[in-house]
From TrEMBL:
Belongs to the CPA3 antiporters (TC 2.A.63) subunit F family. It is found in: Cell membrane. It holds the Pfam family MrpF_PhaF. It comes from Sphingomonas molluscorum. Keywords: Antiport, Cell membrane, Ion transport, Membrane, Transmembrane, Transmembrane helix, Transport. This is K+/H+ antiporter subunit F. It is a multi-pass membrane protein. NCBIfam families: PRK06161.1 (NF004812).
Amino acid sequence: MTTLALALAITAAQILLGLAVFCAFLRMAWGPRAQDRVLGLDTFYTNVMLLLLTFGIQTGRTLYLEAAVIIALLGFVGTVALAKFLMRGEVIE
């Protein structure tokens, strides 16, 4: 695979991930129920994490990869906390 083809594939992936981030933000902002908003938040942080990973691949810097790992960890904990809050009404028992 040539370098040009790889660069074009990464750029196309970044554009599509940007559109996915926008759609997830709309679901997060205008979701009819709280469960839809949590699902939008989960999709939002996953797409942002993947977008950072593509930036890291494109530039070759590890800072983007470390930021993606932090977003993944915090996003998972946030999703679990919101799901627990929606099911029981409290986060800490």
